[in-house]
Design brief:
two-stranded antiparallel ribbon; TIM Barrel; about 30% helix; 11 helices; about 375 residues; about 15% strand; alpha/beta
Length: about 375
Amino acid sequence: MSPHHAKKLFQPYDLGDIHLANRIVMAPLTRNRATPGSDAPNDLMVDYYRQRASAGLLITEASQISQQGQGYIHTPGIYTDEQARGWRRINDAAHEAGSKTFIQLWHVGRVSHVSLQPGGGAPVAPSAIRAKTKTFVADGFADVSEPRALELNEIPGIVADYARAAGLAKDAGFDGVEIHAANGYLLDQFQKDGSNHRTDSYGGSIENGCRLTLEVVDAIAKILPPGRIGIRLSPVSPANDVRDSNPQAVFDYLVRQLDARKLAYIHVIEGATGGARDVAPFDYLALRKAFSGAYIANNSYDRALAVEAVESGAADLVAFGRPFISNPDLVERLRRDAPLNPLDAKTLYGGGAEGYTDYPTLAA
């Protein structure tokens, strides 16, 4: 491939009316370093995002829309004024460095622990089915707690929490929001029949399983223009123990519905989150073709795969996760085809600057 050909990935891209410096996206990455007690972003987080702001689009780590939406200790929230103020400082730093920012709005549903829930209550889910997965609490990793099924009359309150979080995100200076409807968290739990055994209007059919996701989109679209809203999907990822008996039909339907709403992008995890890309058969091109906004491809992309995806038109943008953790200047390294720093798995979750803001740049 000639050097000229390798360049589309590094060229500017207009995401609707949002001008991106390049087509490289920093994927949302949970790092558990928010301020204990308030779960507000802090100085260390400002440094971390500033270091990585060469990404055309910077999507923040998942941020809970309520205390009920929290599933891991020390993850940042977007439901208090103090949290929004912390995010504003991150946005100011990232914008100054030339990036655009979206915040990922999160409700974990059943992937939580009683120690994190209001009043020590059970986590909520579409159905009272415990996930075979772990979460991260005060004394390390623990099995998730037994959830309870949401009552029908509780669902509008959750939709309202998403809308309020979007309003705070707007106040905090974000360019947009990404709805987290992937990786086995609340919206994905509703979307997939392995975790959703409801017999009311939120379960039992593809339309009903996708209803909550679309209600959340519609509520946020009253706060922000649809061109400022993206969504993350993981059609076949077994992350957090969710599966569907016919994922192609579910996501073909959902993406057609999202397209009708004119969202900015779909951000698709191709394969198993952080794992095999070919974990299950799925036609991602069908989603790409059904959606007229941008397609952000994600999962185990290296430079060659990313260059090829953008050149071929399979994707408009490519999101990198783990490489951005250990390479603050990932864009420059990819541009030069320079070697990447190895990742220190021991410092991924929690702690301080070590393994967070101390990875060296090429210049260093």
